[in-house]
Amino acid sequence: MGMNVACLDLEGVLVPEIWIAFSKESGIDELKITTRDEPDYDKLMKFRIAVLKEHGLGLKEIQETIAKIDPLPGAKEFLDELRSNMQTIIISDTFEQFAKPLMEKLGMPTIFCNKLEVAEDGSITGYTMRCEKSKLTTVKALQSCGFDTIATGDSFNDLAMIEASKAGFLFRSTDKIKADYPHLPAYEEYSDLLKAFLDAAN
């Protein structure tokens, strides 16, 4: 039997969607689009970077919004309980520059994410993915080291990681994803998600 590692998505699962919060704060509607709407992450990020440039906004403005974001109600308690039962890693397509203040509010869990390329004037010029298909690649790497992964997420970019794991669950996902992946258990409450992780680990 392998050792279990819980692999969690961040946005939509533990914290609100950062780009949606920034879209509200900045009044720029186009920034509401997330990985729930656009499966092609590269296309999505290039679009976001172009919109920011057009409006003269950079990392500082986004970080000011992030400073006001709190984890979703119940997320920290869920995470604390999960971490007391098994090793837990957050695997996210967000960026180090966004995640750090949120990790502090969650008790500094381990997070694997990507990196923004930022010019001296603070404008976002591009991004570097940690690896190709970052969530799936990370889960497979953990499995190659003798770990069993148990995963959860809410978006298109979580599905490969969920399906490749010993057990995987949708959490607060969209009706479309739930309908397209009826074989994946879908939960709305942290108490149910915690129970699913603990049951899968035994």
What does this structure look like?
- The chain is α/β, with parallel strands linked by helices.
- It has a domain at 3-15 and 72-114 and 130-201: HAD superfamily/HAD-like (Rossmann fold, 3-Layer(aba) Sandwich), CATH 3.40.50.
- Helix content is 44%, strand content 21%.
- The protein contains nine helices and seven strands, in the order βααααβαββαβαβαβα.
- A seven-stranded mixed β-sheet has the order 4-3-2-1-5-6-7, sandwiched between helices.
- β3 (110-118) and β4 (124-128) form a beta hairpin.
- α3 runs parallel beside α5 (96-105).
- The radius of gyration is 17 Å and the shape is globular.
- The termini are close together.
- The model has no long low-confidence stretch (mean pLDDT 95).
Element layout with pairings:
Elements: E1 3-8, H1 18-26, H2 41-55, H3 59-66, H4 75-85, E2 87-95, H5 96-105, E3 110-118, E4 124-128, H6 134-144, E5 147-153, H7 159-164, E6 167-171, H8 175-180, E7 186-187, H9 190-201
Parallel strand pairs: 1-2, 1-5, 2-3, 5-6, 6-7
Antiparallel strand pairs: 3-4
Helix pairs in contact: 3-5, 4-9
The first-to-last residue Cα distance is 10 Å
Which strands sit side by side, in order, in the main sheet?
A: 4-3-2-1-5-6-7
Radius of gyration: 17 Å
Averaging pLDDT over every residue, what do you get?
95
Per CATH, the superfamily of the domain at 3-15 and 72-114 and 130-201 is: HAD superfamily/HAD-like
Q: Can you tell me the CATH architecture of the domain at 3-15 and 72-114 and 130-201?
A: 3-Layer(aba) Sandwich
Percent range for β-strand residues: 15-25%
Low-confidence segments, given as residue ranges, are: none
User: What's the β-strand tally?
Assistant: 7
- Overall geometry comes to globular
Note the total helix count. 9
CATH topology of the domain at 3-15 and 72-114 and 130-201: Rossmann fold
CATH class of the domain at 3-15 and 72-114 and 130-201: Alpha Beta
Order of helices and strands: EHHHHEHEEHEHEHEH
| Structural class category | alpha/beta
Report on the biggest sheet.
7 strands, mixed
Give the fraction of residues assigned to helices.
40-55%
